[in-house]
Amino acid sequence: MIKIMKYGEIPNDEIFARAEPKVNVEGIVSEIIENVKANGDKALFGYCEKFDNAKLDSLTVSPEETEQALSSVDADFIRILKRSADNIRHFHEKQKRNSFIINDRDGVVMGQKIIPVDRAGLYVPGGTAAYPSTVLMDSIPAKIAGVKEVVITTPPNRDGKINPFILAAASVAGVDKIFKVGGAQAIAALAYGTESIPKVDKIVGPGNAFVAEAKKQVFGKVSIDMIAGPSEILIVADKKSNPCHVAADLLSQAEHDKLASAVLVTDSHELAEKVSIELEKQITELDRYEIARASIDSNGKIIVCDSLDTAIEITNEIAPEHLELCLDNPFDYLDAIRHAGSVFMGRYCPEALGDYMAGPNHTLPTGGTAKFSSPLSVDDFIKKTQYTYFTEKALSKLCGDVAAFAEKEGLTAHAKSATVRTKGK
């Protein structure tokens, strides 16, 4: 049963405690990465057989396999995928940055160019559940950014096939290539390249502890989006909130993972009790009951505080991945929210809307990292190059200051590189 805590009466280390994975996979992942670096496709075929029980002839998904998958997916789901993709594009198109140029001083031109990375690699989980939504959320911003080649890695089933819904989503999103490999070995392949899988510049997408550790270890060789942890939801609700709705929303994240975190913060003890009762009713109806049960019992909590203002303070300290403001006037509190991955406003905006159809991205910072990081966006697939142009006359106006600054740092060659151009002139 979910724990009910009274803020101010319970130590803060219990209020703000987070679930942490207990398994240390650093050594295993390091071995996998080194094997893939040394042996390329041969290592990947071996890992597919070992971990996925799949003996493959090829790591690449063929056009025929994609066509076969598309024909097996019902037309209504294709329609839903396309509608979701349209909404995602509509939101992310607004994130596009423009290059700029400054030429408001005589003889000086400065500017910044926005350049997409050449190739992006998307990891799509395929373990306890398959996520075509992740395909759309991660590939569409890359395409909007102008990435030349977007590739996916995702684990195959025992028959050596990829979930048809993932292939359908990849087709809708315009993904260029798909490879049948999962786990840390997929991340290694994307980071270093193999005979079949091209090396990428950026790796994005969620995964299990092995995937997260692999992303951590290859960072620097390639760029990554974030180290994603267990899913989180925090709901701020008042006494007018419907306990049935609140319980359902808490369970929507609890069913993801045994380490997932579902938290309610409320100024109403009555609501807290009703939500606790409603959780017990609804949880027994879930297909993923055992996962949700473990999540709620170990990491679920209801924090009762004195006011909604205090609830917002608690929220900012937790910095949740998903935040629901189940209130009549959520915009009154939006400016006070400083740390959250994605905010869902009002009584008719469940977090699941953001997972699938609304448009804002669902790849979000977890584990409190919303205090310093952001949702996946078009920005993740671009880089910036700056440039500067000075005429001789313009340089002469700053030459003395450049030299003086350099000499204060003990860098006389820096100073000379400026003065040598203007001496005697």
Question: Descriptors for this entry?
Answer:
425 residues; 14 strands; alpha/beta; 17 helices; 6-stranded parallel β-sheet
Describe this entry's structure for a reader.
- The chain has helices at residues 12-15, 26-39, 41-51, 63-72, 75-92, 132-145, 164-173, 183-192, 209-218, 243-254, 269-283, 289-299, 308-318, 331-334, 351-356, 392-408, 412-419, and strands spanning 3-6, 100-105, 108-116, 119-123, 149-154, 177-180, 202-204, 223-224, 232-237, 261-266, 301-304, 322-326, 342-345, 382-390.
- The protein has 425 residues and is α/β, with parallel strands linked by helices.
- Helix content is 44%, strand content 17%.
- It is globular, with a radius of gyration of 25 Å.
- Helix 6 packs parallel to helix 7.
- The strands form three sheets. The chain has a six-stranded parallel beta sheet with strand order 1-11-10-9-12-13, with helices on both faces. It has a five-stranded parallel beta sheet with strand order 6-5-4-7-8, with helices on both faces.
